[in-house]
């Protein structure tokens, strides 16, 4: 990737890496860069106390940019910072670009030359123009996770779901939804279909006895329940990302399967088969993304 702040974008053949019709064909490079974007974006969102919608919107922008331009089009820190900057504006957050750049690039306000800061700010603004054009100036992204979790709460209030089961399912669904943004599913599947697929995946694995109770949720037209082939594909992608990151679903049945897959992959490919589980830890905001990545 380019490391020059004066030339954040350079030409490269477009390479989406996606398999028809919508599921991504992951490579380790895609995973590593998407997890890096997640780490940088999450750090900036936490540091400046932005909303979760800013994080999710910025990651959608990142995947859309990469889908159109490939993985080498822009400096990875510039691109992640640009996505957060634009998403923050869309979500009506007030944040100064200079402060965002200082945090992303670990620039000391007392020792950094003004010209260097200006170069990186200009780089972000240049990439922002490309990003806006890439997404067709369609800025708003809607995330129906709250509605999905509310439907689970409704079942509990109706006496069809014990509170312990509600908490287990809700926590797992939220966790899987968040980590799904390491993958480009967020731009290949409708958000509603993704949420419904995740809910189905968790309930059928964790609480099969509750499938009948949830049937009314899945059968509703607005749920956009996928057909069998698509559901299997979405589930496979989610299982892949959790195995690759060596993360737990919080559902024993899924965790047992994923641990076996992770160990099998490690035995076949060594350490390169997975990513340290600290990658997505809620580390202290005192650490910059550059420091966190260098420690991995």
Describe the fold and architecture:
Residues 45-104 form the Cyclin N-terminal domain. GO terms for molecular function: cyclin-dependent protein serine/threonine kinase regulator activity. This protein has 296 residues and is an all-alpha fold. It has two domains: 28-135, Cyclin A, domain 1; 144-266. Helices cover 62% and strands 0% of the residues. It contains 13 helices and no strands. It has helices at 28-47, 52-69, 76-90, 97-104, 114-134, 145-157, 163-179, 185-188, 191-206, 211-219, 228-245, 252-269, 289-295. The longest helix is centred in the middle third of the chain and has 21 residues, at 114-134. The radius of gyration is 20 Å and the shape is elongated. The two termini are 19 Å apart.
Give me some keywords for this one.
Putative cyclin 9; disordered N terminus; Cyclin A, domain 1; cyclin-dependent protein serine/threonine kinase regulator activity; elongated; Cyclin/Ssn8; 2 domains; 296 residues; single chain; mainly alpha; Cyclin_N; Cyclin-like_sf
Strand content: under 5%
Biggest sheet overview: none
Give the overall average pLDDT.
82
**Low-confidence runs:** 1-24, 273-296
Q: Please compute the radius of gyration using only Cα atoms.
A: 20 Å
**What letter string, H or E per element, gives the SSE order?**
HHHHHHHHHHHHH
Distance between the termini: 19 Å
Tally of DSSP helical segments: 13
Count of strand segments: 0
Instruction: Characterize the overall form.
Output: elongated
Q: What is the percent of helical residues?
A: 55-70%
Number of domains: 2
